């Protein structure tokens, strides 16, 4: 009989679910790390919220099969360490959506009418009616950065309040925006028009510090900011300066760059409403995520079924060994295209030719899709990637070709965005080594490393020297250099592996070189 430890406080119904399914369960909360390390060997699974840290040491001390997070964020779980030991890590990505959206609206009202400050003043025996002059929400423009599950709920509620809603989300299709009743906008347009801005995106390299001094300067004077997503999305010192200058009228925050937030640059400001990460803190949400994680863990322990896994492909043991190298190639192709995508995705097509066409390609398609969506969306894996694509009206097709091709095996990923089509293709060298062989119909042979510089340019003499000189002068070493062109003097591509990151100012100098159209740093 499998045995599970519930290590954090959650609904009693979670334990009841395990027992009803024939799984032995212990509920022991508040364990110190050393005590957890000593007892973890007794369990096949552990269910946690955010308090218990499932570290690499804890993982190494046990024989866990599954770690379940009752909630979304897995910052308290060492996912790479779990993956290395073959442990499935699950979460409940949809359980908190309504609760977090409602907390956003609560902060929206509190900010518009200065309710917290008015409450403190009134309870202190003052009657400062003229001091607290608020603003109406009706007729105002709400700018939503990130229009996924939570952002869409906020949009629906805001429209009910007779607000105009504009949304910035590269993966929001025009049809989906129309269904929601929102206007899709660029980030610059949203910043310029919004009376209120609310954030609902994951914290990634692309979104970190998305509201900073530069972006806040582009906002309408008197804008108000709400953040119930992730603290690192806002540069707190820049927001403080914008409030002090009078450009930003106020902010309402539920999340912070460092948590628990005992101190913060924004604390003590009259224009700031602050709550201690309460977005998911309702009875209903906690009940829902507890039941969901118990059901998911029980399904996996008893039947092997996987739902909402962050690190586990839906493969049998036999398929896993055979498809492993193809999985790596598919993920690289998806990640390559995803990191280059700067506008809404309309459709995705994954084509298989040669030997790979005879295999079970569904896991490969899901892996490519996960790689494609991962640069912009949080907690994407091959299990939930198709669902996320459907929610955004992204049409996904899989095609197998029996025709002969130039390679024994070939995978081509093509995407259509609002700016037009794009494709990338790859193969396996020696049956195990992923290799890019074509980008936008231009032959380019390249093995992808951790840091790649992708450049599109006009095929002109001297460009390679100028590029190498610019990087060399900045101390950036080139590990590999791959070139391709459509025709002499036509469009060309350069794909470079570099030793380490490229500073922003150096990348700006590269982009300023003559004949260069695009230069993007890619991470693999």
Structure write-up:
- The protein is of the alpha/beta class.
- It folds into four domains: 112 residues, NAD(P)-binding Rossmann-like Domain (Rossmann fold), CATH 3.40.50; 178 residues, Rossmann fold, CATH 3.40.50.720; 128 residues, 60s Ribosomal Protein L30, Chain: A, CATH 3.30.1330; 77 residues, ACT domain (Alpha-Beta Plaits), CATH 3.30.70.260.
- It contains 17 helices and 22 strands.
- It has a seven-stranded parallel sheet with strand order 8-7-6-9-10-11-12, with helices on both faces. A six-stranded mixed sheet has the order 14-13-15-16-17-18. A five-stranded parallel sheet has the order 2-1-3-4-5.
- The protein is globular and about 80 Å long.
- The mean pLDDT is 92.
Number of helices: 17
Strand content: 15-25%
Under CATH, the topology of the largest domain is which? Rossmann fold
> What would CATH call the architecture of the largest domain?
3-Layer(aba) Sandwich
Mean pLDDT: 92
End-to-end C-alpha gap? 40 Å
Give the number of domains: 4
Strand order of the largest sheet: 8-7-6-9-10-11-12
Helicity, as a percent range: 25-40%
How do the helices and strands line up, and which of them pair or pack?
Layout: E1 3-6, H1 12-20, E2 24-27, H2 33-39, E3 45-48, H3 56-61, E4 66-69, H4 79-84, E5 88-90, H5 97-113, H6 115-123, E6 141-145, H7 149-160, E7 164-168, H8 174-180, E8 183-184, H9 187-193, E9 196-199, H10 213-217, E10 223-227, H11 236-244, E11 248-253, E12 272-274, H12 283-303, H13 317-340, E13 345-354, H14 362-373, H15 385-391, E14 395-401, E15 409-417, E16 420-429, E17 433-439, E18 442-446, E19 451-458, H16 463-473, E20 478-485, E21 491-498, H17 504-511, E22 516-523
Parallel strand pairs: 1-2, 1-3, 3-4, 4-5, 6-7, 6-9, 7-8, 9-10, 10-11, 11-12, 13-14
Antiparallel strand pairs: 13-15, 15-16, 16-17, 17-18, 19-21, 19-22, 20-21
Helix pairs in contact: 1-12, 5-7, 13-14, 14-15
């Amino acid at each position: 009989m499998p045995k599970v430890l519930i290590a954090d406080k959650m609904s009693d119904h979670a334990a009841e679910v395990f027992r009803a399914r024939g799984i032995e369960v212990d509920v022991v909360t508040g364990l110190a790390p050393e005590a957890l390390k000593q007892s973890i060997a007794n369990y096949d699974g552990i269910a946690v919220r955010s308090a218990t840290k499932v570290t690499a040491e804890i993982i190494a001390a046990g024989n866990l099969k599954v770690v379940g997070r009752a909630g979304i964020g897995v910052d308290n779980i060492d996912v790479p360490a779990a993956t290395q030991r073959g442990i499935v890590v699950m979460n409940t990505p949809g359980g908190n959506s309504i609760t977090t959206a409602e907390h956003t609206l609560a902060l929206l009202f509190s900010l518009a009418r200065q309710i917290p400050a008015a409450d403190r003043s009134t309870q202190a025996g003052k009657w400062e009616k003229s001091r607290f002059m608020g603003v109406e929400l009706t007729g105002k423009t709400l700018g939503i950065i990130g229009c996924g599950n939570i952002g869409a709920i906020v949009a629906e509620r805001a429209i009910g309040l007779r607000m105009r809603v504009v949304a910035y989300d590269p993966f929001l299709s025009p049809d989906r925006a129309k269904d929601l009743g929102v206007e899709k906008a660029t980030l610059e347009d949203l910043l310029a028009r919004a009376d209120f801005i609310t954030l609902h995106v994951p914290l990634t390299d692309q979104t970190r510090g998305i509201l900073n001094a530069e972006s806040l300067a582009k906002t309408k004077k008197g804008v108000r900011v709400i953040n119930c997503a992730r603290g690192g999305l806002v540069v707190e010192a820049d927001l403080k300066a914008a409030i002090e200058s009078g450009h930003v009228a106020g902010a309402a925050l539920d999340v912070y760059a460092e948590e628990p937030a005992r101190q913060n640059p924004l604390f003590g400001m009259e224009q700031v409403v602050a709550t201690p990460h309460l977005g998911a803190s309702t009875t209903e949400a906690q009940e829902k995520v507890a039941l969901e994680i118990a059901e998911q863990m029980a399904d996996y322990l008893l039947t092997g079924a996987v739902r909402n896994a962050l690190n586990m492909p839906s493969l049998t043991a036999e398929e896993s060994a055979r498809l492993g190298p193809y999985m790596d190639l598919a993920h690289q192709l998806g990640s390559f295209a995803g990191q280059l995508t700067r506008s809404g995705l309309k459709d995705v097509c994954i084509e298989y030719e040669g030997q790979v066409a005879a295999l079970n390609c569904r896991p490969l398609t899901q892996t490519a899709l996960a790689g494609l969506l991962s640069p912009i969306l949080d907690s994407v894996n091959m299990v939930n990637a198709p669902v996320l694509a459907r929610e955004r009206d992204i049409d996904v097709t899989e095609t197998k070709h029996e025709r002969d091709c130039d390679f024994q095996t070939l995978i081509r990923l093509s995407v259509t965005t609002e700016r037009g089509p794009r494709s990338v293709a790859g193969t396996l060298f020696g049956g195990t080594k992923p290799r890019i062989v074509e980008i936008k119909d231009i032959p380019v042979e390249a093995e992808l490393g951790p840091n790649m510089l992708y450049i599109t340019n006009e095929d002109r003499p001297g460009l390679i020297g100028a590029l190498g000189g610019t990087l060399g002068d900045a101390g950036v070493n080139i590990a590999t250099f791959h070139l391709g062109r459509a025709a002499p003097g036509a469009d060309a591509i350069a794909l470079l592996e570099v030793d380490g990151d490229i500073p922003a100012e150096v990348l700006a100098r590269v982009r300023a070189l003559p004949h260069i159209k695009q230069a993007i740093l890619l991470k693999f």
